[in-house]
Design a protein that fits this description.
With 185 residues, the protein is α+β, with helices and mostly antiparallel strands. The protein contains four helices and nine strands. The protein has a single domain, classed as Nucleoside Triphosphate Pyrophosphohydrolase (Alpha-Beta Complex). The strands form three sheets. The protein has a four-stranded mixed sheet. A hairpin with a 5-residue loop joins strand 1 and strand 2. Helix 3 packs antiparallel against helix 4. The chain is globular, with a radius of gyration of 16 Å.
């Protein structure tokens, strides 16, 4: 019996974010530069510290740099809210029942990370609050080398100063997030 599993399939979208009816694997969608949907979650603890993850040196883009709390692709036929809750469990081992998540906004972003990795996607951006302790988080060390909680003011400094620690692909989004969340924190 084979243990081979099919790669997850992702809906190809048109310029307006509507499914075209075509699906591709993650590798194919990036190699061909097809438009797709992704989710981004900014996860805060009860003291409004933001969870950041440092990408492993083994990842295919921005190795060793900090990323936002959770990112991932929306699978074919899945809605983005389900995707963000699935990714939260897959990436950090956090159960969806304990998390208050709200949709913030969606925007289109194109980035050529390498000739074989072209990111053309609609990002659905969420924020969430949870009673969170670092020791309760479990993550895949092939993808993430560490997680840490940072005060919102430290995150704001990282965004404004472009300190080099935060993956540059998030600069535009984080510039929108800081004033939006600053009102709530």
């Amino acid at each position: 019996m084979s243990t081979f599993t099919e790669p997850k399939q992702i809906d190809v979208l048109d310029d307006h974010g509507n499914p075209t009816g075509k699906v591709l694997s993650r590798q194919e969608i990036h190699a061909q530069g097809k438009i797709h949907r992704a989710v981004h979650l900014y996860l805060f603890d009860k003291s409004n510290n933001l969870l950041l993850q440092r990408r492993s040196l083994n990842t295919d883009h921005y190795p060793g740099m900090f990323s936002i709390s959770v990112t991932g692709h929306v699978d074919a036929g899945e809605d983005s809210r389900e995707a963000v809750l699935r990714e939260l469990k897959e990436e950090l081992g956090i159960d969806r029942d304990n998390t208050n998540i709200e949709f913030l906004f969606s925007f289109r972003q194109d980035a050529e990370i390498s000739p074989a990795y072209i990111d053309r996607q609609f990002n659905d951006v969420y924020a969430g609050w949870i009673d969170l302790r670092l020791e309760d988080i479990s993550f895949d060390t092939n993808e993430v080398s560490e997680v840490k909680l940072v005060p919102f003011s430290e995150f704001e400094t990282m965004v404004n100063d472009k300190s080099g620690d935060l993956a540059p692909v998030y600069e535009e989004e984080c510039a929108k997030i800081v004033p939006l969340l600053k009102e709530r924190i």
